[in-house]
Amino acid sequence: MRAASAIAASPDKPLSVLTVGEVAEPELPEGWVAVEVRAASLNHHDLWSLRGVGLPGDRLPMILGCDAAGVTPEGDEVVIYPVVADSGDPRGMSLLSERFPGTLAERVAVPRDNLIPKPAGLSFLDAACLPTAWLTAYNMLVTRGRVDLASSVLVQGAGGGVATAAVVLALAMGKTVYATSRDPGKRAKIAALGAVAVEPGARLPERVDVVIESVGQPTFDHSMKCAAPGARIVVCGATGGHLATVDLRRLFAMRLELLGSVMGTLPELEALMDLLVEKDIRPVIDSIYGFSAVADAFAHLESGDVFGKVALDFLH
Ligand SMILES: NC(=O)c1ccc[n+]([C@@H]2O[C@H](COP(=O)([O-])OP(=O)(O)OC[C@H]3O[C@@H](n4cnc5c(N)ncnc54)[C@H](OP(=O)(O)O)[C@@H]3O)[C@@H](O)[C@H]2O)c1
C-alpha cells in the first residue's frame, strides 16, 4: 500500500526526509482493525516528527499522520481517535505515528475501541480535520479553559489548525473572540469568521477570560497581559519557541491559571462532532490535496501560509 513516512530526522529541512512509496500492509494485534483511509489531514505534529521531535531514530521509518476518517472492513464509516494506550511510553499513551504507524497510508491499524461512527452530516474530509487540532481546541476551551464561564477569548496565531478551530468554536459558543495573526491576509480571514482580528501584541479593548496559546515564546507575554483577573491561559504548543518568561507577580496578583493541554478524550471528540452537527459548523479547510500530492501538501504546511487545515483526499 502507499504511505507517507519519515525515513530520518532533519531539524532544518524536514521535507528532505519525507518519503512517499509502497510499504507493507499494517500488522493487526488482537483487538485492532485495518481502516481504509478515505481522508486525512496534516498537523504541525507531522513536521515535528520529520524534524525528529518526539520521534527517535530507533522508530524510523515511521508512517506519519494522526488524523483520518475511513471505512472498516465491515463497511462502517468511522473517525479515528488517535490516542493509543502505550505501556512503552512514560505518558502511558502515544499518538498514532509516534510509536504505532500513522494515518497517511491507504490503510491504518487502530484499536477497535478507538473508532467513532462518523456522523452522516460530516464528510470524510471534514471529519478527518477533527481528531487532533479541533479536539485539542475543544479541550482547551471547554475542559481546561472552562469557557462556559467566560465572555471573551483571545486566540494567538490564528492561522493555525488549532487556532482557527478555537476561533470557530468560541464564536459558536457565543463568546467575543479576539485573534492575532502576523499576516494581514489572515487577519482579514479571521474577521470574516466573525472574530476581532488584531496585530500580535496589540492592546485589546478589554481583558479576556480565556487565552488559547499555541505559538509560545513570541506571543506568551501578550497572552499574560491580556488576561483578566482569574483568567485561564491554556497552552498546547510552542511553534515559535518553548522558553518564555513568566511575570510571577502578574500570575499571583491577577489570580491567573496557567494550564497545559494535550489532545482530549474520546468522549470529548464525540461531543465535538455532535457540536459541529448541532451548530452546523464545519472545520476551516485551507486546501485539499490528492494523496499523490502529499509532498506538496507538506510543503504548503511548512510554508506557514496556511489558514486552517491542510487535508488529503484519498479518493483522488
Ligand atoms: N498539545 C497538543 O495536544 C497539541 C495538539 C495540536 C497541536 N499542538 C501544537 O500546537 C501548535 C500549533 O499546531 P497547528 O497544527 O495548529 O500548527 P499550524 O497549523 O502550523 O499553526 C502555526 C501558527 O502559529 C503561528 N506561528 C508560527 N510561528 C510563529 C512565530 N514565530 N511567531 C508568531 N506566530 C507564529 C502562525 O500564526 P500566524 O501566521 O497567523 O501569525 C501559524 O498560523 C504546534 O506547535 C503543535 O505541535 C499541540
From TrEMBL:
<dbReference type="InterPro" id="IPR036291">
    <property type="entry name" value="NAD(P)-bd_dom_sf"/>
</dbReference>
<dbReference type="Pfam" id="PF08240">
    <property type="entry name" value="ADH_N"/>
</dbReference>
<dbReference type="InterPro" id="IPR011032">
    <property type="entry name" value="GroES-like_sf"/>
</dbReference>
<feature type="domain" description="Enoyl reductase (ER)">
    <location>
        <begin position="13"/>
        <end position="312"/>
    </location>
</feature>
<dbReference type="InterPro" id="IPR020843">
    <property type="entry name" value="ER"/>
</dbReference>
<dbReference type="InterPro" id="IPR052711">
    <property type="entry name" value="Zinc_ADH-like"/>
</dbReference>
<dbReference type="Pfam" id="PF13602">
    <property type="entry name" value="ADH_zinc_N_2"/>
</dbReference>
<dbReference type="GO" id="GO:0016491">
    <property type="term" value="F:oxidoreductase activity"/>
</dbReference>
<protein>
    <submittedName>
        <fullName>Zn-dependent oxidoreductase</fullName>
    </submittedName>
</protein>
<dbReference type="InterPro" id="IPR013154">
    <property type="entry name" value="ADH-like_N"/>
</dbReference>
